[in-house]
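Practice problem 4.
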């Protein structure tokens, strides 16, 4: 029986009925629906709507449904072709288990507040899972940075060689991104952790319910403050999916760099075979499918963000059925992120760089020109002038087909009398790296402490998560 058939004389059109059902996808909210139902049953029992015996019977009926779902798996759930949505499904199955008492459970509540509650519980779990996944990936990146030691690579601006940096310094960029993303998730979690139960269909429950009971039982910080807002607010979905999109964009940059660096043209790394695929046509191929697919997944996340934003745009208050369309993009984005974060740590740990090739690439193409200009600055030359003098020397070396370090002192002195014998020590690879000795710079000592600090910040983030997402600045 429908949850709303009283005022209707005609049956629903069969095609329309099938088309409007959300059960084919919201069945996965069963754990959340059951938890929220137990919390609501306790609230209405406290208000005298259920006797203690009735409450116990409802609770045990809900527990049986949970058990059945565990043993029957998703097949048992999906085989139900009648339920309109997860709320209807639980009501029907509970009626099968405990009889008409089940119908009392819907006293003082509406599906509008139920779906808002279920989705909050779902998103909260997914935020926690994403935080765990991100910290695993960050740890793999830090481990890899530690293994890279003092190895050097070129850095790029405009995809043209810029200055040498430590490989570790480059890898830690992605750790910074995961830390910012984790902070976004913790922040979003705190903002959404309020309980809609008791908001009714729109104006608030028609019974005098103590909303704190359900809120506390479900681990929320407090009941929501406005019933119209609570039943129509989907900011938390948008914020969650937008944060996943941001993470996806970060992953896509990592994926793109590795795809590029694994080409013969760069040759900076050998793709781990366990994470690569071959070509059915070209026998020699080893393709970077993992990084390509990871890069592609960000498109899908961005699509989910766009769907949600468009869904909410201009939607009048309060609940509208349009909101049902917000569930699938959230499920898809959450699954996509779980998938990404399941493969990234293993892939990252398996990466093997060609440090020799990275280092020689860092020593050709005048990557020490900035360090050379800085040498002249230390000799009292204004940077503007130093830039010009080194520019002239670079032009000269280019014509000669050599690097700055290959020029003789006499040749260098054509461009400035400040050049001395100590110039050559100032532009070696090690000196070129180490002259960036500032907070956040690539000097060896700075990167070493950056690795330590990154580990500490990841730990702080894990602690914040364990504390239930209390926001800390990481
Ligand atoms: N399946 C619906 C959804 O996901 C549940 C809420 C239905 N409320 C209603 N008034 N029809 O949005």
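Answer key:
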């Amino acid at each position: 029986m429908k949850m709303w058939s009283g005022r209707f004389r005609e049956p629903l059109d069969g095609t329309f009925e099938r088309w409007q059902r959300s059960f084919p996808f919201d069945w996965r909210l069963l754990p959340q629906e059951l938890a929220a139902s137990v919390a609501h049953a306790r609230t209405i029992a406290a208000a005298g709507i259920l006797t203690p015996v009735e409450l116990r019977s409802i609770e045990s009926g809900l527990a049986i449904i949970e058990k059945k779902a565990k043993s029957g798996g998703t097949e048992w759930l999906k085989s139900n072709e009648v339920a309109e949505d997860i709320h209807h499904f639980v009501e029907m199955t509970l009626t099968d288990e405990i009889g008409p008492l089940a119908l009392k459970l819907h006293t003082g509540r509406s599906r509008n507040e139920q779906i808002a509650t279920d989705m909050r519980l779902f998103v909260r779990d997914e935020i926690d899972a994403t935080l765990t996944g991100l910290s695993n990936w960050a740890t793999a990146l830090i481990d890899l940075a530690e293994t890279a030691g003092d190895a050097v690579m070129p850095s790029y601006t405009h995809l043209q060689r810029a200055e040498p940096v430590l490989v570790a310094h480059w890898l830690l960029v992605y750790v910074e991104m995961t830390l910012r993303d984790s902070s976004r998730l913790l922040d979003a979690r705190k903002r959404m952790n309020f309980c809609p139960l008791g908001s009714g269909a729109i104006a608030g429950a028609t019974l005098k319910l103590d909303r704190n009971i359900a809120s506390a039982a479900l681990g929320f910080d407090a009941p929501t403050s406005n019933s119209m807002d609570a039943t129509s607010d989907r900011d938390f979905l948008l914020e969650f999916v937008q944060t996943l999109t941001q993470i996806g964009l970060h992953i896509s940059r990592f994926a793109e760099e590795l795809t590029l660096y694994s080409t013969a043209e760069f040759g900076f790394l050998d793709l781990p075979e366990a994470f690569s695929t071959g070509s059915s046509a070209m026998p020699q191929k080893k393709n970077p499918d993992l990084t390509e697919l990871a890069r592609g997944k960000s498109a899908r996340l961005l699509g989910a963000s766009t769907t949600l934003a468009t869904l909410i745009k201009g939607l009048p208050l309060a609940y509208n059925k349009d909101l049902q369309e917000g569930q699938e993009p959230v499920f898809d984005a959450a699954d996509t992120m779980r998938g990404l974060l399941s493969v990234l740590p293993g892939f990252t740990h398996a990466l093997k760089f060609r440090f020799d090739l990275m280092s020689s690439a860092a020593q050709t193409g005048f990557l020490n020109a900035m360090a050379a200009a800085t040498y002249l600055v230390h000799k009292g030359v204004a940077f503007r002038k130093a830039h010009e003098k080194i520019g002239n020397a670079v032009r000269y070396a280019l014509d000669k087909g050599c690097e700055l370090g290959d020029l003789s002192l006499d040749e260098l002195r054509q461009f400035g009398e400040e050049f001395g014998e100590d110039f050559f020590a100032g532009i070696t690879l090690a000196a070129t790296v180490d002259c960036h000795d500032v907070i956040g710079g690539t000097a060896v000592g700075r990167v070493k402490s950056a690795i330590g600090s990154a580990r500490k910040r990841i730990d702080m983030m894990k602690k914040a998560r364990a504390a239930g997402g209390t926001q800390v600045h990481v």
